[in-house]
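Weekly puzzle thread! Below is a chain. First person to post its structure in token form gets bragging rights.
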Amino acid sequence: MKSIRLIAIGYLICFVDIYLLNTNLLPEFIAYYLFYKAIDAIDAYENSAHLLKPIIIILGIESLISWILVFFHISMDYYPIIVIIESLTIYFDYQLLTNIENIMKIDYSFDYHKLSMAKNMHVIVYTIYVSYGILSSSIYINQYISFINEYVNALLMIVVLLVTLYILIILWRYKNFVRKVETYEYMQSNS
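Winning reply:
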């Protein structure tokens, strides 16, 4: 299933940053392009998946604009937009992973409970991470609390990355499983 591979690569791009001269070589808008390409195949199994297309477009455009602004060293910290974009990201992640989980249940009953647990954990931890980041950057913090704030922020980011890595492993294993099943079915039909 090519769409699962595209989604896994998209999630990997979202969480891996490779910088060269202050420019991210793996910008998130590439991930949203991959998600957009994959969504039609997911929609064949899950009718609600097509509803994610407008959100993918919005997140992709925002990511492209942010990448261009960073490239030209222009700062944009407008909290209402950040809150809206992060909320859309959380919803997108939850809905896309729910759609994939439902396909796993129907298609092959492949470890869907692991994806369900990881999806829920990802949404909770990512929501805490985003909320904490927005709240801590919008209030005055003295130097001592700032030191603690950096550790809490780093700890939350590590947990988000670990959960995301677990999701990537589940998606990659599912993709390989589906490929084996499709190869077996193809061989059976030709014999």
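Puzzle host: Confirmed. Bonus trivia for everyone else. The beta strands are 19-20, 23-24.
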